[in-house]
């Protein structure tokens, strides 16, 4: 990750992004045939993904589509029933220690020790990595310098979210998994975090998001997950074309089957 403290404004065209990020064809993250059931419900059903080095890859899908289960399996936090994962050639289960040093994870429900202060949490997470960013730098990049001595439990929801992003990035990891990156952040904070993600030169990012503007801005490619299966994959432009839609949001609605229903809604019928 870049160690600049100044973040540039995200470029607004995909070609500029591709050039500036300089990703290669080499795969940084490979998932093959990932499957996970909870009881009789198959939440993830044979998901295969290849994310290139240096790429920002978006994972989209309706509520309950299986996104978090998928990224947790990729991160080695949830065991798959079937399938395999490689992160820079490493198996997140077998090579757990090595993977922890190259992977940063921001999960939807950060399970952090609430009585620790922001500074203590950042120091704790720094200790997992061989060459982390500085504590002050990590706090300042998410604008939490003035909250350094505040306990996690005393932060606002958006501040907790920003801290969890700092903890995912503090190790200067080669691969970053971000689940619902900016959910709950105010517009200014969202832009700030987008610029931060754009500044991660040569880092590979897997981003789960419901925010189509975020995906359009940040992602080189994306996949749409529906009922545990990938139903579309490509650049935002390719996805729009596949759906015959003008916007990614329209494409999403078309490809996931018309009016947006959650899986919970479906259960009621
Ligand atoms: N620990 C669990 N035990 C039982 N069922 C679970 C568990 N975790 C997830 N599920 C179920 O698996 C399905 C997929 O959940 P998952 O959290 O992966 O979806 P998601 O796409 O991330 O959803 P959202 O957009 O709402 O966060 C849902 O039906 C959910 O209820």
TrEMBL record:
Residues 1-24 are annotated as: Disordered. Pfam families: ABC_tran. GO terms for cellular component: plasma membrane. Its main location: membrane. PANTHER family: ABC TRANSPORTER ATP-BINDING PROTEIN. Keywords: Antibiotic resistance, ATP-binding, Nucleotide-binding, Transport. It is a peripheral membrane protein. GO terms for biological process: response to antibiotic. It is found in: Cell membrane. It comes from the Bacteria. It comes from Nesterenkonia xinjiangensis. SMART domains: AAA. This is ABC-2 type transport system ATP-binding protein. CDD domains: ABC_subfamily_A (cd03263). PROSITE patterns: ABC_TRANSPORTER_1, ABC_TRANSPORTER_2. GO terms for molecular function: ATP binding; ATP hydrolysis activity. Signal peptide: none annotated. Residues 29-252 form the ABC transporter domain.
